[in-house]
Amino acid sequence: MHIYLTLVFLSLFCCKRQNNIVPQPEEKQSNAVYINPFISTENDHGQTDVAASVPFGMVKPCPDTNPIAHSGYDYSAKEIIGFSNTRFSGVGCRGVGGNLRILPFVISKEDSIPKGLTYSKESEKAKAGYYSVNLRNGVKTQLTANRQVAFHQYTFPESKNAGFTIDLASSYAGHVSHSYHIENGIISGKITSVNVCRKGKYTFYYAIRFNHEVSEVTEDDSKLIFKFSTKNNQDILLRCALSVVDENSAIQNLKLSEKLSFSEVKEQAFTSWNNLMDVVHVETENDTLKELFYTHLYHATQSPFIINDKNGVFRGSDGNPYKSNSSHYHGWSVWDTFRTKLPLFSFLYPNRYKDMLTSLKALYKQGKPDWATETEPFLTIRTEHTIAIVLDAYQKGILPFPLSDIYEEMKAEAKHLPFKSPDNVLESSYDLWALSEISKALGENAEAKFYRDKAFEYKTLWKDKFLTMDENSDIMHGDGLYEGTLWQYRWFVPFDINGIQTMIGGKDEFETQLDYFFENELFNIGNQPDIQVPYLYNYTNSPWKTQRLIDQLLNKETNNWYGTHHKLEQPITRKIFTNTPNGYIKEMDDDAGTMSSWYVWSTMGLYPVFPGTTQLALTTPQFDEFTIKTNDKPLQIIANGRTSKKIYIQKVTWNGEEINSSIIDFNLISKGGILQFELTDTPNKDWGKQN
Fold first, then answer.
1. Cβ pair 237, 155 in contact under 8 A
2. Residue 585 contacts residue 525 (beta carbons within 8 Å)
3. Are 73 and 319 in contact (CB under 8 A)?
4. 10 Å Cβ neighbour count for 404?
């Protein structure tokens, strides 16, 4: 570590003082105003955060609280321990990020520098791209950001003993190493931290500068302490720039931001979120529904992160430098997000999604493992089921490269798929089925048959573990399951729904056992393995039961018996989704936007029950009308007669032509048109049987 503590550098921190913030024009009523960053930030009710960020941005400045949460911030906490600059919204274990934690202080001469500060809860404000709070020491904190630079504006009271601490070792999952030096008024260096669930490491570079003269610089363990005096209501702007390439690149990113004022960046951040939200316009008089819809879409689009610099350069998971002419995305949790979020991006943001797919292709070329490597360039988690996502994009006509480009890499991945436990068998068989479809598309018929045969070997295990359910079938982690019960994993054979219906005893018996599953409250909305199951009635003679069930899950109190790792002695009885800080049920992580995306899909009346095909399950939309921008003409989803009691589908038309199927084709509606639902208060038991 380079240590420069002499006052030679102190004058270098001087720069032209930031002008007062220019008053912003009144915001027009736009979709981004419905974003409420406080939703799902309390305790263990989602593990989201109030970071001031831009869509898919690297930097996410946000308060870290005591007690700390997976994303740093807990709405119910009484103390802030600093404002860190990285995080991954809504992930499990202990979270990841929390780097470069900054704490402003104001002390008496004889006092020690605090490790945390209380704050005025009523002063807290958060909106898309902005956060502010008044600390009890008299400092007002405001945060905003662009993609690679965090802007911290601190307004100090008059003091002879004010300053910042910058903790170079702060990290949620674990700190490995750091370096720094100070030159030309810039603090710059390198950070290496532990990734999610202590799987692998990530290394990035930083550059920090603030616009005030310093009287003293010291170091206390991993913390740099900058002391100075302030006038009353003096604004001090601190910029923190990141790069995954090298230290000089971080410095260049910092310098590129120097002509931007805090207010300009704040306005640009809000505009970027509004542009993203404006892809979908909803019609309803219920502002709470709008708030939930746009906030969940906001949570879904926090990650992955665009990590390449302006010149296109980035580092890969193998630690080597690369260059891309398009946005390069990093920060994956595909095991969760392949179920809902990535298909949602293919629907709402196909042009951005093509860059994500190209980034996944690059990951394969770098030797993609299932979890994070030791040389990741930034925060990331896991990548299982990418084969299914590649197939999904190919079937939708949006894969931006030939399947053959990574066919050999996908085959190599298939050799290492796990089959140690019942959930492994079902999950890995899904990947093998997807690879068989890819092989078939490439004309590799012998290999297609090989992978398909291997995929359908799941039936041996299924008959042994899932055909006959008993008292042992409702045990969390039973039979070595990762998370969940045999009842919850039982249904995860989306590529062969007909097959498990046959093994159970036919479509009617399949429906009867679905009834038992839900009537006995065996479903776990709080985790991923069975989140598609409410839509499986669309593959029976009673799709109206999906309509009723989704209405219950979205709008009514339900009993919820399961945490992440255990079944509760008493259920949590409440609405699952609320526009409050405890926006999800207890222990229901957002899982990198997976559950947010489940909500968005379900409110639109669509669901990708089977990623890897173009099948979308239909249910009752929650709004009067959706208008979705596409690359062609708009897609309108209209729910005629929508009320709290009219929750059943009487009739569906596509561009005026009646359809009597509870499954619709992605490729049919994604190019735009009018999907119209006629609703009623009693089930139409004849609609939707012809799939």
1. no
2. yes
3. no
4. 12
What's the Cα-to-Cα distance from 250 to each of 44, 55, 84, 258, rounded to whole Å?
Answer: 34, 20, 17, 13
Beta bridge partners, 678, equal: 640, 651
* pLDDT tens figures, 635-683: 999 999 999 999 999 999 999 999 999 999 999 999 999 999 999 999 9
For the ranges 9-23, 467-481, 504-518, the lowest mean pLDDT is seen at 9-23
Closest CA to 406 of 375, 370, 368, 353: 368
CB distance 298 to 128 below 8 Å: yes
Q: How far apart are CA 488 and CA 465, in angstroms?
A: 12
**pLDDT tens-digit readout, 424-448:** 999 999 999 999 999 999 999 999 9
pLDDT at 691: 64
Q: Are 375 and 333 contacting, i.e. CB atoms less than 8 angstroms apart? A: no
Query: Helix (H, G, I), strand (E, B), or coil: what is residue 226?
Result: strand
CA 435 – CA 450 distance, rounded (Å): 10
Cβ atoms 458, 426 nearer than 8 A = yes
136, 107 in Cβ contact below 8 A?
Answer: no
Number of Cβ within 10 Å of residue 178's Cβ equals 20
Is the distance from CB of 47 to CB of 91 less than 8 angstroms? yes
For residue 329, what is the enclosing H or E element? strand 329-330
List C-alpha distances in Å: 524 to 44, 517, 559. Answer: 16, 10, 10
Residues paired with residue 119 on neighbouring β-strands, in sequence order: 135
Contacts of residue 97, Cβ cutoff 8 Å, sequence gap at least 6: 60, 71, 72, 84, 86, 87, 88, 171, 172, 193, 379
Does an H or E element contain 216, and which? strand 216-220
115-131: pLDDT as tens digits: 999 999 999 999 999 99
Q: Which of 7, 39, 11, 27 is nearest to 576 (CA)?
A: 39
Task: Give the pairing type, strands 140-145 and 201-210.
Answer: unpaired
Backbone angles phi, psi at 126, to 5 degrees: -150, 135
Q: What is the 3-state secondary structure (H, E, C) of 335-404?
A: HHHCCCHHHHHHHHCHHHHHHHHHHHHHHHHCCCCCECCCCECCCCCECCCHHHHHHHHHHCCCCCCCHH
Consecutive H or E run containing 673 = strand 673-680
Q: What are phi and psi of 120, to 5 degrees?
A: -85, 110
The yes-or-no verdict on residue 6 having pLDDT over 80 is no
Q: Which residues contact 650 (CB under 8 A, 6 or more apart)?
A: 678, 679, 680, 684, 687
Is the CB of residue 406 less than 8 Å from the CB of residue 361?
yes
Phi and psi angles of residue 21, each rounded to the nearest 5 degrees, phi first: -60, 130
* Three-state secondary-structure class, residue 82: strand
Which ranges of 456-543 does DSSP label H, i.e. alpha helix? 458-465, 486-489, 497-504, 507-519
If DSSP codes are grouped into helix, strand and coil, which group holds residue 600? helix
Q: CA 590, CA 467: separation in Å to the nearest integer?
A: 31
If you average pLDDT over every residue of the chain, what do you get? 95
Which pair of tokens denotes residue 94?
Answer: 């202990």
